[in-house]
Amino acid sequence: MGSQMGFSGRIGNVIHYKMGDKYYSRSAPRKYTQTKASKARAEIFGRASSIGAQIRGGLSSVIPNPSDRKMHGRLVADLFAWLQILSDNPTVKNNQPIFDPINSLNSEAVSLGSRWRVEARVINPSPGLLEIKIPALDPKKAFIAPNGAVEVICKIATTVTDIVKLTSIGRYSTEVIYPLDDQEVAEQNISIELPMPEGSLVVTGLALVYAEDKYYRKKFITNNSFLPSKIIHSIYL
């Protein structure tokens, strides 16, 4: 508001200042003191945001829409909840809380399970090694496909993040292509070797992409309801 005082400076909680030929006054900004608990939550949230960014970068090949803000927020919320549990439990080898997000990596898509009737299994048989096993299947029965689709690409990606240094340690991606016919496809076994030191979070994501024949050329179907993507496995070492 305007002031007729002709004075610049602070009196109590009011700041008086001159702008042009007029004098004004406004309330001084309030200072807020963070509690120890609120500082700790803010630090954990910052770590969750950084780890989320690393995971999204490492899983970029299985994320249909990298700018999906809902997906960003849900992933960070899952990481924040997991880090809070982790911070309350001293490190005990082989007894760490599991990071198990239930949210999709595509907020516009239906669940992966509603498009694929089989389930890929991921195991960690030895240090630095993951094995992904996709059972034998009949593509026409296993996949729920949109009209006109002639094949489905199963994309798989794994990323390793140091949750203390907030950096990427390693990443891997591959894909398996299934023609949408009734010819049974043998079991797929995929071995992934990556550095996985203690203190790292290893996350594996899987996405489906359908293709159709359009004017004698393959064209990817961009309908979000047929672009399911999900984190299917994670392990904290």
Describe the structure.
- The chain has 237 residues and is α+β, with helices and mostly antiparallel strands.
- It folds into two domains: 31 residues, no CATH class; 201 residues, no CATH class.
- Helices cover 19% and strands 38% of the residues.
- The chain has three helices and twelve strands.
- Helix 1 packs across helix 2.
- The mean pLDDT is 88.
Helix content: 10-25%
Mean pLDDT: 88
Strand fraction band? 35-45%
Instruction: Return Rg in Å.
Output: 26 Å
Biggest β-sheet description: 5 strands, antiparallel
Q: How many helices in DSSP terms?
A: 3
Name the assembly state. single chain
Category by helix and strand content: alpha+beta
Number of strands: 12
Contiguous uncertain segments of 5+ residues = none
Whole-number total of structural domains:
2
Shape: elongated
SSE run: EEEEHHEEHEEEEEE
**What is the straight-line distance between the termini?**
59 Å
